[in-house]
Amino acid sequence: MGFQRSPSSKQKVKPISKENNDENGGDHSINARTTSDPTDSVTSDANYNSWMTEHPSALGSFDKMMKAAKGKKIAVFLDYDGTLSPIVDDPDRAFMSDEMRAAVREVAKFFPTAIISGRSREKVKEFVELSNVYYAGSHGMDIQAPPRPVKACEGKYHTLVPGKKGNEVLFQPAKKFLPAIQEIIKELEEETKKIQGARIEDNRFCISVHFRQVREEDYNMLQEKVKAVLRNYPDFDLSEGKKVMEIRPSIEWDKGHALEYLLDTLGLSNPNDVLPLYIGDDRTDEDAFKVIKGRGQGYPIIVSSTPKETKASYSLNDPSEVLIFLLRLSRWRKSSSSSKQLAQIWDIGY
């Protein structure tokens, strides 16, 4: 298979620890950096200030970013959980606000806009409820996009489906893994049913094992049960995000590949006049940040209130700042004399 990933690239999950609670969905407010020890507080603030120097606020840098974007085409890519919606205890209740939905709808009037999520494509569509954006679910392994000339190596992964404006294409490079995914889900549900708070989510081409509501002392047991199930499925990788373990087919496909695929599909593959703007908060978004960095043009933006290793160039504190940024982006385009012309180019209705 053309997308098969080499075994050496498999990621290993590390046991939960006090040090990584913030990254895995703990208190992400700035106040969370404050500790009872004044020395720790000063050190923490110094680390945060240093991190912000390397990853300045996208709000504070907005004018500079847009000045560099003049005369170029912007394409917007957005993660969902932790970016458009807050991280919540119940993943089925990760609703975006009406204000955020309106902001995304407005941005999509002026720029090609896609949601790239680890959720199933259908699930994220239910949350977002917008028809003027493109959706990529399962970390980019399930993409609905406009039709385009099909490359020979990709043909068997495409399915033509009816869309709002004619036919659209489903691109699903992990189709052959669907039977095994359903087997894994059944085994995980059986093995974890006695662990209070553990939840198995079927994301179609990948699986999420949520442990936000699992007691800390039960985490290692949960992790071992998940690993034990996967020992019988060597074609799957295990990684960890915010209070969630992710199980994905071992193929060379991630959010970075999904970003490249969508840019190509939308006729925006030329790095000289296209600026992809990607906002995300999770480790899986780093693959997209890396692609943008490699292009030499674009804005990778991490959503985080705490310092973390990232390839992003800019940062936003939380979804409330994402909302402000999106509102400013659409206002900036509205103020441009070419806004209506651009909307016509992308054939996106008001």
Q: What is the element string, with H for helices and E for strands?
A: HHEHEHEEEEHEEHEEHEHEEHH
Strand fraction equals 15-25%
* Number of E-type strands: 13
Mean model confidence by pLDDT = 84
Helix segment tally:
10
Spatial strand order of the main sheet = 5-6-4-3-2-1-11-12-13
What is the gist of this entry?
With 350 residues, this protein is an alpha/beta fold.
Question: Your description of this structure?
Answer:
- With 350 residues, the chain is an alpha/beta fold.
- It is 34% helix and 18% strand.
- It is built from 10 helices and 13 strands.
- The chain has helices spanning 38-54, 62-69, 98-110, 121-128, 178-192, 216-230, 255-265, 286-295, 319-334, 339-345; strands at 73-78, 113-116, 134-137, 142-145, 158-163, 166-171, 199-202, 207-210, 236-240, 244-249, 274-280, 299-303, 314-316.
- It has a 9-stranded mixed β-sheet, with helices on both faces. A 4-stranded antiparallel β-sheet has the order 7-8-10-9, covered by helices on one side.
- Helix 5 packs antiparallel against helix 6.
- The protein is globular and about 55 Å long.
- The protein starts with 37 loop residues before the first helix and ends in a 5-residue tail after the last helix.
- Mean pLDDT is 84; it is low at 5-36 and 344-350.
SSE map:
Elements: H1 38-54, H2 62-69, E1 73-78, H3 98-110, E2 113-116, H4 121-128, E3 134-137, E4 142-145, E5 158-163, E6 166-171, H5 178-192, E7 199-202, E8 207-210, H6 216-230, E9 236-240, E10 244-249, H7 255-265, E11 274-280, H8 286-295, E12 299-303, E13 314-316, H9 319-334, H10 339-345
Helix pairs in contact: 3-9, 5-6, 7-8
